């Protein structure tokens, strides 16, 4: 399968700087693509959040550039998510060291998605999200927020969490505490899957149901330009709705010999 992607990051309506950073990296190996996608939402005064998120992107890029051949040939799937989690732990130390040096509290979310050998791998900390869209939309990551924890513990309903003034309080992010617990996940890729990575500045004003519906409306998911246009359209909608935060999204699809949209129609009934 050939990976096709569209990605947009915008500072939004209010903030003077964009503290989000993302990585899109694709290699071709024996007529198949391997892709790494990382979404980071930095936090900190002035430009410190931007530095934190850029550190995360830098280390994931270096790891992928240096080790992608080893990743392709790795037989133990569990080891790949462990490799990705280790990168986040290294980044956590680097950002903490930077914060101590500058005497500031700084951090970032990290949501990393690796697509390799028909398997997706995820390593994640924070409240940025990774979705998989097929016959339904499914959030693959776990929000590390106070309200999400309360929902999981049956203290709060999902509706209450969505409307809570505390919905943006993180229980975990990268760069603040010495020890972090990295969320890890892996699963099978279907040729008709679409993956979406986004920060909270996107999904705060763009519901899951709407995202699913808008992806269904895309008639020709056959190249990067189409997905890039869709990503820009979605970000523009969020800005029009008055989102105050930075806004970032990555949309990832696949092209096979049959054509991605034909597979999508066949399997999902679009």
From TrEMBL:
Domain PPM-type phosphatase: 4-254
SUPFAM superfamilies according to UniProt: PP2C-like
InterPro entries per record: PP2C, PPM-type-like_dom_sf, PPM-type_phosphatase-like_dom
CDD domains: PP2Cc (cd00143)
Superkingdom of this protein's organism: Bacteria
GO molecular function: protein serine/threonine phosphatase activity
Gene3D superfamilies tied to this protein: PPM-type phosphatase domain (3.60.40.10)
Protein name, UniProt field: Serine/threonine phosphatase (Inactivated protein)
């Amino acid at each position: 399968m050939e990976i096709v992607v569209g990605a947009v990051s915008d500072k939004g309506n209010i903030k003077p700087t964009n503290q989000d950073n993302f990585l899109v990296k694709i290699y071709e190996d024996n007529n198949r693509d391997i892709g790494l996608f990382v979404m980071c939402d930095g936090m900190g005064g002035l430009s410190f959040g931007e530095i934190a998120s850029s550190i995360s992107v830098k280390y994931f890029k270096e790891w992928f550039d240096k080790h992608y051949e080893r990743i392709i040939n790795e037989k133990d799937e569990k080891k790949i998510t462990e490799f990705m989690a280790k990168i986040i732990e290294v980044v956590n130390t680097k950002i903490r060291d930077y914060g101590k040096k500058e005497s500031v509290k700084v951090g970032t979310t990290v949501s990393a998605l690796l697509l390799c050998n028909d398997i997706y791998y995820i390593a994640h900390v924070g409240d940025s999200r990774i979705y998989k869209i097929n016959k339904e939309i499914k959030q693959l990551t776990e929000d590390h927020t106070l309200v999400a924890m309360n929902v999981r513990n049956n203290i709060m309903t999902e509706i209450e969490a969505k409307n809570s003034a505390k919905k943006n309080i993180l229980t975990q992010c990268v760069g603040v505490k010495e020890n972090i617990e990295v969320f890890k996940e892996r699963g099978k890729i279907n040729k008709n899957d679409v993956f979406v990575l986004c920060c909270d500045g996107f999904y705060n004003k763009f519901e899951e149901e709407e995202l699913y519906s808008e992806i269904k409306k895309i008639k020709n998911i056959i190249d990067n330009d189409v997905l890039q246009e869709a990503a820009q359209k979605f970000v523009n909608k969020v800005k029009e709705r008055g989102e105050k935060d930075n806004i970032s999204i990555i949309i990832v699809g696949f092209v096979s010999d049959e054509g991605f949209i034909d597979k999508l129609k066949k399997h999902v009934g679009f």
